Amino acid sequence: MTALTHEPTPLTDLPPVTAWLSDMDGVLVKENRALPGANEFLAALREKNIPFLVLTNNSVFTNRDLSARLANSGLDIPEDNIWTSANATAAFLHQQSPGSTAYVIGEAGLTTAIHTAGYVMTEIDPEFVVLGEVRSYDFHALTHAIRLIERGAKFIATNPDVSGPSDEGTLPACGAIAAMITAATGQKPYFVGKPNPVMIRAGLNKIGAHSESAAMVGDRMDTDVRAGVEAGLRTHLVLSGSTAREDINNFPFRPFGIHEGIGDLIELVEAAH
To answer: Annotated catalytic sites, by residue?
Structure first.
């Protein structure tokens, strides 16, 4: 593969943006601690009255729970400024089939979002089977989901991540459990979370923003940057999370800007009119 050699456009030459989307883990927080520059970045957004959302593929926690967890990390982010894969999944279901029914395997973050969207959660003949992250998977629940899908229920999942971290080591995540259901039924799920640009566009709609005047910052090329690129956003990669600079050329797309951390983007926020 030919190396990309051109330098990123200097921040001072970039046109201002009117809305920001930011990934959470690896960008604003890491190991339950705020990363350098995160508070100042958020303060700059508030000072300029710029709409923003904090994004995460985590569907376990409600927005209120995540707001409290972020507060414990030293970041003041109201629940209305948080957009999870559970929120995006609920918005997608409401758009596709308002007021319908779903069999849901997930924690409070997912069940709360789907209930708020006006859905009825049922085990009997639902239109959708919805799979999210759970702390422990129940074999009976998975078996029931498989049989409902075999009978014609549409298969939706919050996010394609196959594994996640824990204090004890790797945990199987939503994508891995979805693969098991796919193996049993032959039906692949529709994943709503990143890198699906549906999650990004729904977030933009929530804050009344447009892709051509919005920017996104993330720490992963395969989810954050890909989702931003596919949604048409000006996408920035920070190297404070899971991506190293030498990894970037392994992908057929590149971010609009590459930065050491979120603090490097404060200048761009402050340049907004």
So the answer is: 23, 25
Pairing of strands 33-34, 52-56: unpaired
How many distinct structural domains can be found in the chain? 2
User: For position 33, which CATH number holds?
Assistant: 3.40.50.1000
pLDDT at 171: 83
Give the integer Cα–Cα distance in Å for 158 and 58: 9
Phi-psi region of 210 (alpha: psi -120 to 50; beta: other; left: phi over 0): beta
Phi first, then psi, for residue 150 (nearest 5°) are: -60, -30
Quote the domain boundaries for residue 210.
Answer: 11-57+194-270
- Cα→Cα distances 177→8, 136, 161, 198, Å: 39, 11, 10, 22
Q: Tell me which residues of the chain have a pLDDT lower than 50.
A: 1-3, 5
Domain endpoint, select from 139, 158, 191: 191
Question: What are φ and ψ of residue 89, in 5° steps?
Answer: -65, -45
pTM recorded for the entire structure: 0.91
| Domain final position from 130, 162, 191 | 191
Residue 216 DSSP SS3: strand
Do the beta carbons of residue 192 and residue 227 sit within 8 Å? Answer: no
* Same-domain pairing of 181 and 101: yes
Distance from C-alpha of 161 to C-alpha of 180, rounded to nearest angstrom: 14
Tokens 């779903």: give the residue: 102
List residues bridging with 235 in a β-sheet. 216
Query: To 5 degrees, how large is the angle CA 42–CA 8–CA 228?
Result: 55
User: Kindly report the CA angle at 219 between 214 and 225, in degrees rounded to 5?
Assistant: 50
